[in-house]
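STRUCTURE:
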């Protein structure tokens, strides 16, 4: 499974920053740029997750505080375990679901389908393999833009146009990154839906 260290190593190759005795970017700085790109990726192309949450007897309000990285709730099934599934209308506001069901919850479970942010750390990643290069594109863009700002008013052995070259490379990559997010993004996917009568 791909880890943060794997992504950072690949990012150094993309940035041609592989001399461990003279790194342009520290690990911490690259990790920050990876995190920035991961956040952008997670909002445009979130992971699809489901979870079971217990309701509170006598209340139609269900807290989603335990759903890490929640971006948006897609569907709610209540009560669970029926066929066909008993989908209910709902409102989502300020971290709470408000179930629009005729049946008052009795403490039984509700199943929540939602989309959430991706994770990437030392133990693994939720980013699909086919999107790792998209993540790397975004992280490289942020790194190049950052170093172009750092190079302003500094003596650069590469010449007077080093700052602009870094900036141009960063802008090209951020444009490509945004185009890929648009191409693969959730809002451009056709999702099968059907109307249902609330349980």
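SEQUENCE:
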């Amino acid at each position: 499974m791909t880890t943060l260290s794997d992504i950072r190593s690949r990012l150094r190759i993309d940035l041609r920053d592989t001399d461990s005795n003279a790194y342009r970017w520290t690990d911490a700085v690259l990790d920050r740029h990876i995190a920035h790109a991961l956040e952008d990726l997670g909002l445009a192309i979130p992971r699809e997750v489901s979870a079971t949450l217990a309701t509170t007897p006598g209340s139609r309000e269900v807290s989603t505080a335990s759903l890490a990285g929640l971006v948006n709730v897609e569907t709610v099934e209540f009560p669970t375990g029926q066929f066909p599934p008993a989908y209910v209308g709902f409102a989502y506001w300020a971290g709470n679901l408000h179930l629009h069901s005729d049946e008052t919850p009795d403490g039984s479970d509700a199943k929540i389908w939602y989309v959430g942010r991706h994770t990437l750390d030392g133990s693994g990643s939720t980013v699909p393999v086919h999107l790792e290069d998209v993540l790397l594109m975004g992280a490289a863009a942020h790194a190049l833009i950052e170093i172009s700002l750092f190079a302003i008013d500094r003596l650069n052995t590469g010449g007077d146009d080093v700052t602009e070259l870094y900036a141009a490379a960063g802008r090209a990559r951020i444009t490509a990154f945004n185009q890929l997010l648009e191409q693969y993004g959730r809002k451009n996917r056709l999702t099968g839906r059907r109307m249902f009568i609330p349980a």
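REMARK: The longest strand covers residues 47-54.
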